[in-house]
Design goal:
By secondary structure, the protein is α+β, with helices and mostly antiparallel strands. The protein has 3 domains: about 55 residues, Structural Genomics Hypothetical 15.5 Kd Protein In mrcA-pckA Intergenic Region, Chain A (Roll), CATH 3.10.290; about 90 residues, 2-Layer Sandwich (Alpha-Beta Plaits); about 70 residues, Alpha-Beta Plaits (2-Layer Sandwich), CATH 3.30.70.1560. About 20% of the residues lie in helices and about 25% in strands. It has 6 helices and 14 strands. Strands 4, 5, 6, 7, 10, 11, 12, 13 and 14 form a 9-stranded mixed beta sheet that branches.
Length: about 250
């Protein structure tokens, strides 16, 4: 049972219950709405099952154990996305990578003992994105805590990429890639950038602006010819084959 201390009186400027639950780290906003509708949330001892209800920041929030059980059964799936698939909804005639999450595409060497169930696709959503012309680790999850960790506003999870490039990079250009560039008028956070080999960079970011690495490289005179995400946090792509997926193990944490 999780609580927010102290009863209070609700006002029009008080936060919505789902937002307050998310702020307390109990779950994601999406999960909060589901738990509220299921009658799993009490505020100051009374069940609240109406979405949009506002609560005092000092209200006591209690969560039914059924919600924790539901949350623990949520799955997270790691896919090695091929070129030509979009991360989210289908667009411009390109298929979503989600279509690859089927039993026939599961990695035969997946160490997880979990058996695939159609219910594992319900509410499964990408926690982040990879451009259509990029490959590598794409995370899908039913767990709002994982989504918030990876793509929440305050996320500081590292993402590591191997970036094949053409062009000449000066020492000053390398320093700019590491820190000093702007995109759309916004200064980028520091990045770790180094040569992996003579035509491939290793780039580690703590943010994920649209086509960020490709645009960063263009600013220093490089053309990206291949981009692969190989790590998110402490979870690596490893030997997972292109176009195949596996379950996140219980002992793996981002």
């Amino acid at each position: 049972m999780a609580t927010a201390p102290g009863p209070g009186h609700e006002r029009s400027d008080d936060p919505r219950l789902s937002k307050r639950m998310s702020e307390l780290g109990l779950c994601s906003r999406r999960e909060a709405d589901e738990w509220i509708e299921n009658g799993w949330v009490k505020v100051d001892g009374e069940i609240v099952d109406t979405l949009g209800t506002r609560v005092s920041p000092h209200a006591r929030i209690e969560i039914d154990p059924a919600a924790a059980k539901h949350q623990s059964e949520s799955v997270t799936i790691l896919l090695n996305k091929p070129i030509g698939y979009v991360s989210g909804q289908a667009e411009d005639g390109h298929e979503p990578a989600m279509l690859l999450i089927r039993p026939e595409h599961r990695w035969a060497a997946d160490p997880s003992p979990m058996r695939f169930k159609p219910g594992h696709l319900r509410g499964l959503a990408p926690a982040g994105r990879l451009d259509i012309d990029s490959t590598g680790l794409l995370v899908f999850t039913q767990d709002g805590r994982v989504a918030k960790l990876l793509i929440g506003r305050d996320s500081a999870i590292e993402k590591e990429y191997l970036v094949r490039v053409q062009g000449t990079l000066s020492a000053e250009g390398l320093k700019l890639l590491q820190h000093g560039l702007e995109l759309d008028g916004v200064k980028l956070k520091p990045a770790r950038v180094s040569w992996q080999n003579e035509d491939q960079l290793r780039v580690v970011l703590r943010e994920g602006r649209k086509r960020q690495i490709r645009r960063m490289c263009e600013l220093v005179g490089l053309t990206v010819t291949g981009l692969k995400r190989v790590r998110s946090g402490s979870v690596s792509l490893g030997p997972l084959p292109l176009g195949q997926w596996r379950y996140l193990r219980r002992d793996e944490k981002f």
